[in-house]
Amino acid sequence: MAKVVILAEKPSQAKAYAEAFTIQEKTKTYIQLKADDTFPNGATITWGVGHLVELKEPHDYKPEWKKWKLDQLPIVPEQFLEKVAKGKWEQFQSVKKLFQQADIIVNAADVDREGSNIFYSILKLTGVKGKPIQRLWINSLEKDEVRKGFRQLQSNEKDLRLFDEAKARQISDWMVGINASRLFTLLLQKKGYGSYLTIGRVQSPTVYLIYQRHREIENFKPEPFYQIEGLFNAQAGTYKGLAEIKEKDKAKVKAVLDKHQLQEKETYKGIVERLDKKTKRIKSPNLHSLSTLQSVANRRWKYSPSQVLKTMQKLYEKRLVSYPRTDCNFITDSEFSYLVKNLKGYQQALNVSFTASSLKPSKRYVDSSKVQEHYAIIPTKSVPTEKKLSGLSREERNIYNEIMATTLAMFHKDYVYEETTIFTHVHDLPFKSTGKRDVDRGWKELFPKPVKSKQEKEADLPGVQKGEQVDAQLHIKESMTQPPKPYTEGQLINMMKTCGKLVDDEADVEILKEVEGLGTEATRSSIIETIKAQKYIEVKRNNVAITEKGIMLCEAIEGTLLSSPSMTAKWESYLKKIGSGDGSKQVFIMQTRQFIDKLIQETPDVIQQVNVRNTGEPEKRKWNEPIAQCPACENGSIVDRYKFYACSDYKKECTVTFPKKLAGKTLTQNMIKTLCEKKRTKVLKGFKGKKRFSTALVLDENYKITFDFAKKT
Questions:
Q1: CB of 195 within 8 A of CB of 620?
Q2: pLDDT tens digits for 653-712?
Q3: What is the C-alpha separation between 178 and 598, in angstroms, rounded?
């Protein structure tokens, strides 16, 4: 009786798998399934909690690596080891025990390289070897898809290559992050910088691209330019037009008016010399990948990329949409087939009704050759009930409707509009006016109708006839050239994906095109969140601005490969080769080591040119730097001793110590300073007992910290 143990990436995923079968028993760390056709002897589903294991920190290898020192660089362990992530020991021990008892182990983590990494990293740390391993590879958590996937488990050959690819990426990112962050920080601290920088292989070039846009805006010099604008009054209404002249020199524009014996503010007779009408068609948009969905959601609702990914994950776990972290805009004939079957149900869910213009697959959307691991984001076979839809949050409903409308659009008619160009002559000076009129909204009916801007309303043209006379008033229109606009968060996703446009080397452009720029579909939103958290950028009203800290980082990395998307492109290109079996993890890690050695050698000269900026951060205290005078002995100072605060004469005669944590709340250096100097703090929130409470802290006569509940402010 073969014992099957299945590892899901997280509890919610395990729950979704289990619900496709009959559950025998649920525990804190695993779910037992009853025997059935798929698992004749039953099966056990357990889970990671995201990254259940992680790479060890530098101090886990050598205690002296805890302190940041230039003479310790490069920090490169002889062998990279892993440990159980903090707070996850119990779950790891349960997984280890189940793996030891298993006859067959199934990797059912997310179907991408990080899913492979999570599974094999856990397996390696358990020490379990020599057991058959199979791979679940599905794009939907619907019950029938889950059952089908478990009946058609794949070999782990491809999975092992993806693990090598992911591990090479993880180790190299660790090496760059640890060494470059310490290198740049310590060199800048020598120049007076009081805080820390974090450097990352993908995050740093991303910040640099934002910095480049900042410089373009900052260095932009607006210039005036002049045009001749006509306001025409026809029988059916008014419209505007421009003469085909655009000059920086106003005198040249004035000379054109003089040549045609025209003056501003006078009324003239014009004539509609020509009327061109063209009917144009626009096909429905491509199906969504994660990045296109993130861009649309940011433009329409100002959702951040990470907010979209979180919302998509919830919809995926509710079995309403297909796998969210896809970079593909195509589906196969199989998905198209079930979409056709459910067309009526989907229309009801979106509260729309139309007759499909075609039920045959189009290569614009359906192309198996373009689908690799995952197909485009589409609704699942599960058509939601009104009750299920009403239970969605506003974000979930908006995102779901967008996916549904984009999917249904491929069955709808083209959007058809008529483009009209009017050529109006005034004293033989031609003016051009362009406008458009909807003929058939087609697939656009499925989406909310956008509110027309003032400019769009002005572009609506009245119905005029060829040869018609119109009243014309002319003026010289003065405009200013406009600087580039800051990126929005949604545009950051596109910028990261298409940064090849900003690279000069043609070979690098091709590589960036192949690997789709910086990061991956699954990681771009977390990279943006990281650089926000590191205070390199800030987002105001959806516009991304670089901070003083971000500018200092970019000045420090300028000219190095850390500022270049090309380095990341070459890395991703080689990582893909590892995943396909054409590259070597060892070679990749060795090349990363060479890159770090070069960085250590060249960076000191680069940092000499960098201006240390006031980044607005509280300066980090150096180890053993005095916090306050000791309130007891008055000879020593209270210092941070890593696990507690104590007098600097602690090992001699003074016994004053303060804890780092009290009733579940971290005591900061500022709190300790206030207690030493004023003997009490203001009321502080966040203490934990049977329930959360607030209190002031008091330093009593024995130099012990006590609570003062009587103090109200």
A1: yes
A2: 788 899 988 988 889 888 999 999 999 999 888 888 888 888 999 999 888 999 988 766
A3: 15
Report pLDDT digits (tens) over 137-156: 988 888 988 999 999 999 98
Is the four-CA dihedral 546, 549, 555, 560 of positive or negative sign?
Answer: negative
User: What is the number of other CB atoms lying within 10 angstroms of the CB of residue 205?
Assistant: 26
484 Cβ contact partners less than 8 Å away, ≥ 6 residues apart: 213, 216, 217, 220
Nearest to 415 by CA among 372, 385, 445, 455: 445
CA dihedral 363, 365, 370, 376 (to 10 degrees): -170
Contact between 673 and 651 (Cβ < 8 Å):
no
Question: How many Å separate Cα 274 from the centre of its chain?
Answer: 50
Tell me which amino acid residue 479 is.
S
Report pLDDT for 516: 64
- pLDDT tens string 68-92: 999 999 999 999 999 999 889 999 9
**In order of start, what are the domains of the chain with their CATH numbers?**
4-52+88-155 (3.40.50.140), 171-218+485-607 (1.10.460.10), 224-281+419-480 (2.70.20.10), 290-409 (1.10.290.10), 628-708 (no CATH)
Is residue 688 a contact partner of residue 682, using CB atoms and an 8 Å limit? no
Closest to 92 in 3D by CA, of 81, 100, 84 = 84
Contact status, residue 202 vs residue 221, Cβ threshold 8 Å: no
Burial of residue 405 (number of CB atoms within 10 Å: 0-12, 13-18, 19+): buried
CA 110 to chain centre: 18
Q: Which residues have a Cβ under 8 Å from the Cβ of 242 and sit 6 or more positions away?
A: 227, 228, 229, 230, 431, 432, 433, 477
Residue 201 has pLDDT above 90, yes or no: no
Provide the 3-class DSSP secondary structure of residue 384.
Answer: coil
- pLDDT value of position 596: 94
Structure tokens that stand for 51 in this block: 């990254």
pLDDT value for 535? 92
How many other CB atoms are found less than 10 A from the CB of residue 217?
13
Structure confidence at residue 150 (pLDDT): 96
477's enclosing H/E stretch is: strand 469-480
Strand partners of residue 647:
638
Measured CA to CA, the distance from residue 487 to residue 540 in angstroms comes to: 11
497-525 mean pLDDT: 67
Compute the distance between CA of residue 396 and CA of residue 542 in angstroms, rounded to an integer: 20
For residue 178, give both structure tokens.
């640890």
Distance of alpha carbon 308 from alpha carbon 489, whole angstroms: 11
Are the CB atoms for 320 and 380 separated by under 8 Å?
yes
Q: Other CB atoms closer than 10 Å to residue 49's CB: what's the count?
A: 13
- pLDDT(636) > 90: no
C-alpha–C-alpha distance, residues 539 and 531, integer Å = 11
User: Cα 609 from chain centroid?
Assistant: 32
Q: Are 126 and 95 in contact (CB under 8 A)?
A: yes
Q: What is the pTM of this model?
A: 0.79
3 state SS of 587: helix
Distances (CA, A) of 31 to 98, 133, 145, 411: 11, 19, 19, 42
SS3 track for 620-631: CCCCCCCCEECC
User: Which residues is 564 bridged to in the sheet?
Assistant: none
CA atoms within 13 A on the CB side of 41: 8
Q: Is 506 left (phi over 0), alpha (psi -120 to 50) or beta?
A: alpha
